[in-house]
Design brief:
about 45 residues, 2 helices
């Protein structure tokens, strides 16, 4: 999971969108790094 999020963050996206959900516009790179941290802390996923 972490590898995938790192690869996506490296693209430095501005908008982030889920398939059927909201769109985040901003620092997508940082948001993906934060998401990886949440997965690690809450779910124990690396």
């Amino acid at each position: 999971m972490n590898t995938t999020l790192k690869r996506l963050a490296a693209l430095q996206p501005n908008p982030l969108a889920t398939m059927h959900g909201s769109v985040y516009v901003g620092d997508g790179e940082n948001a993906l790094h934060d998401l990886a941290g949440v997965f690690r802390d809450v779910l124990g996923v690396s």
